[in-house]
Each structure stands twice: as C-alpha cells, then as structure tokens.
Amino acid sequence: MLPYPLLTVFLLVMWLLLNRFTLGHVLLGGMVAVCSSWAMAALRPDKPKLRRWYLLPKLFGVVMLDIIRSNIAVSRVILQGRAKEHRSAFINVPLELRDPTALAILSIIVTGTPGSAWLEYDSRNSSVLLHVLDLVDDDEWRDLLKNRYEKLLLEIFS
Amino acid sequence: MIYSAADIPVWMAVVVAFFVLAGAALALIGAIGFLRLPTFYERIHAPTLATSWGTGGIMCASILFFSVAGGRLVAHEVLIGVFITVTTPVTFMLLARAALHRDRFENNPKVPRRTGPVKL
C-alpha cells in the first residue's frame, strides 16, 4: 500500500510543519502524502534499500557535531588570515560505497561540513576527489571519511 | 502575528540572542573568508559556514522565539534548514567542477589530472 514509507512520513511531517498540528491537517496531509508516494511509485525511480534505518539518527548526530567542530576550525583559519599559513590540498579517496542514494548523502555531508569540498566522483574508479581547506594529514582525512561516515552509510544502505 | 521581544522571559531572550549572534557571526566570517582567501578552491569553503551553522543558528533562534512567544510549537524553519542543506551541494559541485574543467583544460599544474580508467 505504501511504496515509499519514509517519503510518506516526511511529506506528512512537512505538511504539519507548514500548517498547524490539528487532526484535520493530519488527515489532509496524510492523504496528500499517500497520494504523492503513489505518484512517486508511478515514476519508478531506483528504490533505495534502507536496511538499518535506525542508524540514521546516529549518523545525523555525528554529522551535526562534526559540522560544529569544523565551523570553528574554518572560522579560525579565516580569521587568522595570513598570520598563520594553512595548507589546502586535493585528496583522492577510494570509496566502497556504490549505492547512489548513499553517495548523495555522503556528498551532502562532505559539502555541508565547512573545510571539505566534494569536487568530483569518478564512478569508474569509484573514488572521489576532495578539496580540504586545512590539510594536516592525508591519511587522517581518508580515515575520517571512511571510518566515520562511509562505514555507517554502508551499514544503513546495503 | 507580530510579537515583541518583551513577550518572552529574559533567560529565553538570552538564548535566542546567542543563537542569532552565533549564526550572524558565522555568516559574516564566511563573507570575510570569501573576500580574503587566495584561490578559488579555498574560497568555495567559506560560504559553507553560512549554509551550515550560520543558517542553523538563526533557525534555532527563530524556532525558540516564535515557539515561546506564540505559546505553541512553530518549527517550519526546520524546512529551510533541510532544503538549504540538501540543495547547496548542487550549486557547489557545479561551480567546483566547472573550475576543475577549466583548470584541466588550461593544464594548470596545481590541479590533479583526471584519473584514467585504470583501477587504482
């Protein structure tokens, strides 16, 4: 009956946020959400295989904390200006992640975190080219990306 | 409805002010970085300050202020945060890849070459 349960839930939540939390809006929003998920199913997009969706909040928490930390780090680099040199560099990180949805989420994480930029994903080598504003150690970055985010994403989608 | 700042308790006003100032400060630092960083690839990092916790701080402040002043949960700002986070990478990658393409075309030695079809 519900081809995309997550989409339906999110549409309903969005409806309720934009309107008021009343029974009428729950019913109306629920109807809109269910109908739109059927419309989505008619388009037959690739269905992302969410295995362990309960890990999503953990990923969200980890990313939020890292974003706060890197906000502070990047602010420091900018405010110090030329007083202290920072070394920005490109790094290439090979990825095991293949699922397009998971890759999209990873790119949002990397881009959303100040100080690192997702430039180019190469599907032939399945590696990604990143640009890091203040690079201290290449391997530390690879380790961060692979063990902190990619591992969780591989667990969630697989 | 328009609320006045006097409608909320002082301690809440302090929290709201903290979030507004933190968000605004991050957006300002991002703009300064945009101006001061030397290369294009470094400059693209600066606006992400404004799109991450710059937006986040002002969003939290807005949610707290209107929820407390209005006496009910007002949280549609969350949607602004979600849509900014999800859509930023699109423009971001478009700009970055355009720059990469041009630099590679001009054989700029500072930019890594496109990796070949060889499996690494």
Overall description:
The complex is a heterodimer of chains A (158) and B (120). Chain A is an alpha+beta fold and 158 residues long. Chain A contains five helices and three strands. Chain A is 58% helix and 12% strand. In chain A, strand 2 and strand 3 (127-132) form a beta hairpin. Chain A is globular and about 60 Å long. Chain B is an all-alpha fold. Chain B has one domain (12-105). In chain B, 70% of the residues lie in helices and 0% in strands. Chain A binds chain B through residues 14, 17-18, 20-21, 67-68, 71, 74-75, 77-79, 81, 88, 90, 92, 94, 107-108, 111-120, 122, 124-125, 127, 129, 131, 133, and chain B through 26, 29-30, 32-33, 36-37, 39, 41-42, 44-46, 48-49, 51-53, 72-73, 75-76, 78-79, 85-86, 88-89, 92-93, 96-97, 100, 111-112, 114-115, 117-120.
Strand order of the largest sheet of chain A: 1-3-2
Shape of chain A: globular
Alpha-beta content class of chain A: alpha+beta
Topology order of chain A in helix (H) and strand (E) letters: HHHEHEEH
Mean pLDDT of chain B: 85
How many helices of chain B? The count is 4
Helix percent of chain A reads 55-70%
Biggest sheet details of chain A: 3 strands, antiparallel
Overall domain count of chain A? 2
Rg calc of chain B:
20 Å
Largest sheet of chain B: none
Which structural class should the secondary elements of chain B be placed in?
Answer: mainly alpha
CA(first)-CA(last) distance of chain A? 24 Å
Number of domain modules of chain B: 1
* Contiguous runs where pLDDT drops below 50 for at least 5 residues of chain B: none
How many separate helices of chain A? 5
Q: What is the share of helical residues of chain B?
A: over 70%
